[in-house]
Amino acid sequence: MKLSIGENIRRLRRQRDITQEQLAERLGVTYQSVSRWENGNAYPDMELLPAISDIFSVSIDELLGIPEAEKEKRAQELCEEYSRIQNMDFPKDKENERYERLAEIIVSLRRDYAGCDSVWKFWLNSFDWLLMDKRLLPEVRLFAEARLEKCPENTEVIDKMAIIEDDDHIEAFLKRYATEYDVSKDSLLMRRYLKRNEPEKAVPLQNQKLFEIIDDAINSRALYLLDRNNKTLEGCFAENTVRLGILHSFCEETPTPEHPITCGNGVDYWAETRLEIGIRRACYLAAMGKPEEAFAVLEDVISLLENVMKIKDRIELKTSRFTPTLKWTAEESWFNPNAQPGALERNIFINNSQNFCFEVYPSSYLQMLTADQGWEWFDAIREDERYKAIVDRVRKLVLTKE
Prior knowledge:
globular; 18 helices; 5 strands; alpha+beta; 58% helix; 434 Repressor (Amino-terminal Domain); five-stranded antiparallel beta sheet
């Protein structure tokens, strides 16, 4: 790949009305060196790249002229490395090494890749990890600021930082980013429409807020606890039943013995939630000595997974009468969910017109069905041929490519 760093230095220098001599003086080099860079006869030393990018207020990748596709690839590689290191077992005397490398990755993501889609997905999927390691918070704070500078409409970052931020900084954070009602653009628009007596414009935003409230209720942390040391089987099953009941009520549907999770309604925008709730429910039923009910649930949700994975071209999904203005679509996508170098997995990306999204990865459900640790309650039916057949069906849905 040919780098265009010389052309970029010339362009950026002229845009900022800086002479070659002035740039050379700030970098501690001769103006002849700057001239050779700009003429393409030489490249700056690697050690100078951060200083040059700081002078021009651009990322190193922008300075080098790296194409967006290559930039996204490098950003994803960094995110995958972060995930691998975070999940590795480190001896106590090596914990500082883990922290130092994680901090380096966050610095790089902040400095060079804050606008990349891969970084956006990384942020949404990893904020729980960031919450657990307070030492990373200063870099995470700068990372969030860089992200919001690049993508000011990304309210998810503000939502997550409101959780991660420490007590000493939370007031300053809220003063900078929060509003009287809510942090989001939609909430500000809602206030505008109501104040201007334009309620018809507020309906789509009200529908989105209703959906978010229901989603929070179904996926609330209070109803999503699986710590075997503190939760009983009966408690987990009760929480699962509440979540499923909220889902069925919102969708105005009635479960049947053949379709206890999907109610026979096919693929909808709750597909990911139905799969997760259903597999957990089957796990609990198996441990409670109810194998037939467990297999009925598994058959329902695995059939749903198979139907979801048949989607290729973008399709429109049906919506609830409570949120008629939200348009939901589903389409094929490829991404790396498990930090396996070079391996992209086929998934189905489900989102709505307000950018609320779900992603269905078959490998995540295969892991639930085959993992030993954390899923011991499946042991009661693992040797059943029906269970082995279900695992095989899910395994066939996992498609990867380099």
